[in-house]
Amino acid sequence: MKKLIILFALLLGACVSKPDNITPVKNFETAKYLGKWYEIARLDHSFERGLSQVTAEYSLREDGGLKVLNRGYKAEDSKWKDASGKAYFVDQADVGYLKVSFFGPFYGAYVIFDLDHENYSYSLVSGPDKSYLWLLSRTPTMDPVTQQRLVAKAQALGFETSKLIFVDQRVQK
Prior knowledge:
The chain is built from three helices and nine strands, in the order H-H-E-E-E-E-E-E-E-E-H-E. By secondary structure, the protein is an alpha+beta fold.
């Protein structure tokens, strides 16, 4: 039983670990990160498959964490899908390294490794390994030069950017 508990603890800890050579941003300001972000591109995962108009909205929780509301439109079903979660800083609150949960006690890493520190207009985010990548923007579209620079950075760090899905942010009719 003791070995099982240790294995379970190691597995949970691995979910909030950072990928190799990915460094969270420093001088992170939570207040500037709050609000709505638009998903410009992502690596595919079942929980977002087929979604367009994907957004993430962050607000403060009473316990000091962040409330996370992810939303996307599933055209195949003609309906919106929402997922509500919570996030907490793994280390210090001025480092862009959080753990996020949408499923009870299970957390996954949310590592902000590039950020427009001046205006908080874009963010490049990884999960616990390099199969998770999100390019976020405060607007539904992103300046092509900035987008290309961020995708090139992710590719140089070992993400499979050839598999990125560029999210359709146009309103469905």
